[in-house]
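Quick review question:
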């Protein structure tokens, strides 16, 4: 895995394509030559299948395939292997699936890389979904404070050998202490100071998120719903 600190910040901004294929490819064509990473989530992937990953790869992008695996270890090994074979450069799994499950997912990634003769994809663990608060943790029987749960799950991600975590910008600095200087900390919930917050609650500006210790930022609507997505992307880069 390349050291993220050696990669310019512009190439560590991931554009979330939460839309249909036609719109995704329109945005990709506009942003080619500006952005390096595109994120494909469940909504787009389950409509279009693996071909959407390949279409973005064909346009020269790195693809973050955010399908958040959570199943028995054998299934996650197979899913991770298959995801890498679609061309994904980064993928996600739920840390709540256990250390054994995350290790299996990591093995699937390594097996695929060995068979393809490529560098292994980056692997991220989801600690606690940002849509969950203390009440939701209580609902599923987790008696810890949410901040404590995030750090414990991050430690599990680390011992499982994954590249890093998905986290809110507010958690990034504490996570950096647990995970060390090279781990990936990929943060959604990023909003330029002038942008509409939308349904994101715990937001930070791009500059603040990087300063808090994020390695990569995931930004969707402030770019994808802008009248001029390229200008929106470049304004974000200029704000760093
Ligand atoms: O449009 P917006 O910038 O809010 O998009 C953020 C992206 O990050 C979306 O694809 C969303 O699903 C994803 N995400 C998130 N919060 C998480 C994990 C992923 O907003 N905790």
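Suggested answer, residue by residue:
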């Amino acid at each position: 895995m390349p050291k993220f600190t050696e990669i310019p910040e512009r190439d560590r901004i991931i554009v979330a394509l939460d839309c249909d294929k036609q719109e995704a490819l329109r945005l990709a064509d506009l942003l080619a030559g500006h952005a390096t990473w595109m994120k494909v989530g469940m909504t787009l992937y389950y409509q279009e299948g693996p071909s959407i990953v390949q279409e973005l790869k064909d346009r020269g992008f790195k693809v973050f395939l955010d399908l958040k695996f959570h199943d028995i270890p054998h299934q996650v090994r197979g899913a991770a292997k298959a995801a890498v074979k679609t061309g994904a450069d980064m993928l996600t799994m739920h840390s709540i699936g256990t250390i054994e499950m995350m290790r299996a997912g990591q093995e699937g990634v390594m097996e695929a890389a060995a068979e393809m003769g490529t560098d292994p994809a980056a692997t991220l663990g989801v600690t606690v979904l940002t849509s969950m608060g203390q009440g939701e943790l209580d609902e599923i029987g987790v008696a810890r404070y949410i901040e404590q749960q995030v750090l414990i799950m991050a430690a599990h991600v680390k011992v499982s050998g994954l590249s890093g975590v998905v986290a809110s910008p507010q958690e990034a600095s504490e996570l950096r202490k647990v995970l060390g200087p090279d781990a990936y900390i990929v943060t959604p919930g990023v909003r330029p100071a002038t942008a509409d917050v939308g349904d994101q609650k715990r937001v930070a500006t791009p500059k603040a998120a990087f300063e808090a210790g994020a390695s990569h930022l995931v930004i969707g609507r402030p770019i994808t719903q802008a009248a001029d997505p390229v200008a929106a992307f470049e304004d974000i880069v200029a704000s760093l």
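Why it works: Residues 16, 18, 39, 41, 129-130, 166, 188-189, 198, 200, 218-221 surround cytidine-5'-monophosphate (CB under 6 Å). The mean pLDDT is 95.
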